[in-house]
Task: inverse folding
């Protein structure tokens, strides 16, 4: 994520002269967002000739892999993709601003910067870069993926690429998990028009197939669903075996060793905070669950300290209460050990769209290994769409069916798999709140929804209104902080309006009715799909 991809694919027919260098290529530049928000722009360019002008590429390039030869099919290029750096209203909150920046960027400002970056992608330079790693052959009927991190959406593009490469190479060497092959990576290619700096990039194998959709697990034949779940369990169980002495992110060994080292934690949440707040999140090697959880919870807290657009008092109260409640109980949920090694390598975003399948739901590849982390064992969780914690994914499908099928496959394998036994315990969502905590720490924007559905009902018996009223009567400081946040929101909204960057959808103040409707929807989903795994 947080990168964009272009697809440069040779358009050919049976009567085309495949050797004609003047034939045209179709280059598509598109952000890979959620299915509802895919923007695509297509352009045509002349086919790159047999010779590549090396002067168009800035600086020395990494040496192509030795396995390239004259028979390697020429490629076409996909250039990265990204998930939105901010998710509008609830993600853009964060750290204390530096003195030279009173307010954070608005979500639309960041989106506009990202779109400008995408529109400036130089498709000729991308094709030239791809050809360089294919013995300087022009693009033909083979597709590669060239990922270019979106600079306005990523704090440190080179660190992100290095970590992704180190993680993928380690997974390829130590597991049988299907992932794309890495052809090359670097940071010294000029791939953006009218830019004086070079860009980081990652060239990957293109995996045929399509992204899994949650509806596939409803509509497909039972045998295909069971086969898919068995393959997913195998992926997770192999990851579960990759153990490390400390938590953090994998990076190349500075001494040149074959295996990576565990370095400071790079995460989606910390990156979004840094980008929106224009500040730096300081991280370090994490040697205990206590340290890891504290580090991630601080990022969550900072995420909700930045001013938000049109923040209502009701929303501010819900957020303040949820953060305080979670802070008091999170170590109880995920453990508070001081030496919990080994730590486990976890894919940070195993959403359906990052699982490539064929027509029979066989897994062809797991993609998007950027932001993968080594985490404490209790934060090595099942994909949230299998447990009900990804409320967006399950909003319009009978999640009971997904969870039932998945648990049945786990149960069938538990005699021979310790991982399956542990996963079955995780599925007891009525008691296990580590899943909820992990989801909130990874995706701060889901705080209220996940807290309301999974955590609040386990901690309190009285109504929410009664609990919140009593809470703010007892905690005058918290009540004052709510008033301060609402005031800051008014100032921030006014600033954006005067600056001319406040769009109509951001100019609508959240009302009590909006919040009640939102929470009612979460409760309705909960009641409709509430499920406990079958007991043995």
Result:
């Amino acid at each position: 994520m947080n990168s964009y991809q272009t697809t440069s694919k040779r358009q050919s027919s049976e009567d085309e002269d495949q050797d004609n260098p003047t034939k045209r290529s179709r280059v598509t530049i598109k952000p890979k967002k959620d299915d509802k928000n895919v923007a695509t722009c297509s352009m045509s360019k002349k086919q790159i000739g047999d010779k590549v002008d090396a002067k168009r590429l800035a600086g020395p390039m990494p040496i192509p892999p030795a396995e390239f030869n004259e028979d390697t099919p020429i490629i076409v290029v996909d250039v990265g993709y990204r998930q939105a750096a901010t998710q509008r209203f609830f993600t853009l909150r964060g750290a204390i601003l530096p003195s030279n920046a009173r307010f954070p960027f608005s979500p639309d400002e960041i989106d506009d910067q990202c779109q400008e970056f995408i529109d400036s992608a130089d498709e000729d330079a991308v094709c030239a870069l791809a050809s360089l790693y294919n013995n300087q052959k022009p693009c033909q009927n083979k597709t590669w993926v060239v990922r270019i991190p979106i600079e306005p959406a990523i704090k440190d593009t080179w660190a992100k690429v290095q970590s992704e490469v180190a993680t993928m190479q380690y997974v390829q060497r130590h597991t049988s998990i299907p992932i794309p092959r890495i052809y090359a990576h670097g940071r010294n290619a000029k791939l953006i028009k009218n830019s004086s700096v070079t860009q980081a990039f990652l060239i990957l194998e293109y995996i045929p197939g399509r992204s899994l959709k949650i509806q596939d697990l409803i509509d497909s034949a039972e045998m295909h669903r069971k086969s898919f779940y068995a393959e997913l369990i195998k992926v997770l169980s192999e990851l579960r075996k990759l153990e490390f002495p400390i938590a953090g992110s994998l990076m190349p060994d500075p001494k040149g060793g074959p295996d990576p080292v565990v370095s400071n934690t790079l995460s989606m949440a910390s990156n979004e905070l840094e980008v929106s707040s224009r500040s730096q999140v300081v991280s370090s090697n994490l040697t205990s669950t206590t340290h890891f959880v504290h580090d991630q919870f601080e990022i969550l807290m900072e995420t909700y300290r930045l001013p938000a657009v049109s923040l209502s008092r009701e929303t501010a109260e819900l957020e303040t209460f949820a953060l305080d409640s979670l802070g008091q109980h999170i170590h109880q949920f995920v453990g508070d050990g001081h030496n919990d090694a080994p730590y486990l390598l976890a894919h940070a975003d195993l959403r359906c769209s990052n699982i490539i399948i064929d027509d029979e739901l066989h897994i062809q590849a797991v993609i998007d290994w950027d932001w993968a982390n080594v985490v404490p064992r209790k934060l090595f969780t099942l994909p949230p769409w299998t447990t009900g914690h990804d409320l967006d994914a399950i909003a319009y499908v009978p999640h009971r069916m997904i969870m039932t099928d998945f648990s049945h496959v786990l149960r069938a394998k538990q005699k021979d798999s310790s991982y399956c036994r542990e996963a079955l315990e995780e599925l007891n969502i009525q008691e296990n709140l580590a899943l909820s905590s992990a989801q909130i720490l990874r995706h701060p924007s889901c705080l209220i929804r996940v807290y309301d559905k999974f955590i609040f009902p386990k901690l309190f018996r009285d109504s929410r209104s009664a609990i919140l009223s009593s809470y703010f009567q007892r905690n005058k400081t918290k009540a004052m902080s709510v008033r301060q946040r609402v005031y800051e929101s008014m100032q921030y909204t006014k600033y954006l309006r005067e600056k001319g960057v406040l769009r109509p959808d951001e100019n609508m103040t959240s009302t009590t009715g909006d919040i009640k409707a939102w929470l009612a929807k979460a409760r309705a989903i909960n009641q409709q799909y509430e499920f406990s795994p079958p007991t043995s």
